[in-house]
Write a structure and sequence with these properties.
mainly alpha, 197 residues, binds zinc ion, 50% helix
């Protein structure tokens, strides 16, 4: 738990994550300086917290390891699509298929329901078994939106190695966090010092 708190602190939301759960998903695993990897979806309990914080699943949904595995699998596919978009390269067909599969596996349309007393209404049913499928569908739909919206032009990879997160650029800022910006500036200053010695 203590380690989890530390990893959370190491991963403040990067610009764009609040609007795009797909970006937040990709950024939920990061390579930290020193080669350590933080993964906010590393266990079912963490994955559950991550989804609940974003309103993508009810709290204490009772996620199993297989659910966390599905989330991590979609993360790799979406990561690959964002990387392709940033590099201006063709996408891996398997990644496109994975996003479309996640989006179409469950219906996200509110269904027509009929109450005996009050009459017709619409609601999205969330059976426990489909909680993760619904979350995956919502994230996949957001990935498709992100890649095709004007926001895609602002999508960029954090310019502070070894960080492998993405962000939506605002102005000249090209780091996912102040922590990464500080590290990049320190590295530049060090390079200047050693070049002049
Ligand atoms: Zn970064």
């Amino acid at each position: 738990m203590e380690e989890f708190v530390r990893e959370e602190a190491a991963l403040p939301a990067s610009p764009g994550e609040a609007e795009h759960p797909a970006l937040a998903l990709v950024n939920s695993a990061v390579t930290l300086p020193g080669g350590h990897t933080a993964d906010l979806l590393g266990t079912p309990a963490r994955a559950e917290q991550w989804l609940a914080r974003r309103g993508l699943a009810p709290a204490a949904a009772g996620l199993a390891e297989v659910c966390a595995t599905q989330l991590r699998a979609l993360r790799e596919q979406v990561r690959s699509l964002l990387a392709s978009r940033v590099a201006g390269q063709p996408a891996l067909p398997a990644a496109v298929t994975a996003v479309n599969d996640a989006m179409t596996r469950v219906s996200t349309a509110p269904l027509l329901l009929w109450d005996e007393k009050t009459g017709p209404y619409r609601a999205t049913p969330h059976p426990t078994t489909a909680i993760v499928e619904h979350a995956l569908a919502a994230i996949a739909a957001d990935a498709a939106d992100l890649l095709t919206s004007p926001d895609a032009a602002r999508l960029t990879a954090c310019a502070s190695p070894p960080c492998n997160r993405f962000l939506l650029k605002h102005g000249r800022r090209q780091w996912c966090s102040t922590r990464c910006g500080d590290r990049a500036r320190a590295a530049r200053a060090y390079a200047r010092r050693t070049a002049t010695e």
